[in-house]
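User: Hi! I'm a student and our assignment asks us to look at how structure tokens line up with a sequence. Could you show me two examples?

Assistant: Happy to help. In each example below, the sequence comes first and the structure tokens follow. Example one:
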Amino acid sequence: MTDTPQNPGAAKDPLHGVTLEKLLTTLVDNFGWPALASQVNINCFKSDPSVKSSLKFLRRTPWARKEVETLYLDFIEGHLRPDMSRSKRRTPLSEFKAQKPKVSTAKPAADSPWNDHPLMKKQDDPS
């Protein structure tokens, strides 16, 4: 497809017009199920793999779909070698480092009923 006024995003998205089935079939034809299973750790690639079961799982599991799409993009751009190693790696969504959870520094109010709770008292408090 070309970039037209009715379809302005077609040229910017390399996955535009590529079905998940075509994407998966291309990867399986070029690398095989064992190689895909080594890159994306999901059971539908390891145990009795089929395109049908894999499509069903990938459509319901966004993180796995993102991993497979990343492999496909690396393949079509020439970054993925036949042994599934990459000359240049994209960072799929599942590999972003999780941020540390924010810890509240708020202190309980002086008149809170929780102030008298036994678990809220300090260990060195003799009372």
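Example two works the same way, sequence first and then tokens:
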Amino acid sequence: MTPTTPSTTGAPRATAEVELAIGGMTCASCAARVEKKLNCLDGVAAAVNYAAEKAKVTYGDGVTVADVVATVEATGYAATPPRAGGTAGGERADEGATGAGDELTPLRQRLITAVVAALPLAASGLLDPMIAGAAMAFSSVFVVGNSLRLRSFKAAG
């Protein structure tokens, strides 16, 4: 998709848009830093979404996707351009959703198992406060472990 927009000189200027997956951001300040560096490129307008770990970049003539990726990497973060292929964007999104579903299936099964095992104990009053405290501590370890696992999945995808 290559729409044309008028430049300041009045001549039409071709622009293109790309959405990059950004890895390594740990806070909103990281996203702001990446966005600032990208917007410093001539003819580039970027918006970085920290939560989605994506950057939507509109660029003009003289700038390539490789230039944008190199700028992000020079800033200290990983950037993955969209996959090249003959499929439409919607089809690629469906493929990614299927892969995410396959990755999340074991996590969902563990959650359901934990709820099914904990409800009868809690309902019968057999859950001693000390046991509850230990269970909460262990659940925190599992939550952190699973979140790190999901984070690595996002960076790889």
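Here is something you could point out in your write-up. The radius of gyration is 22 Å.
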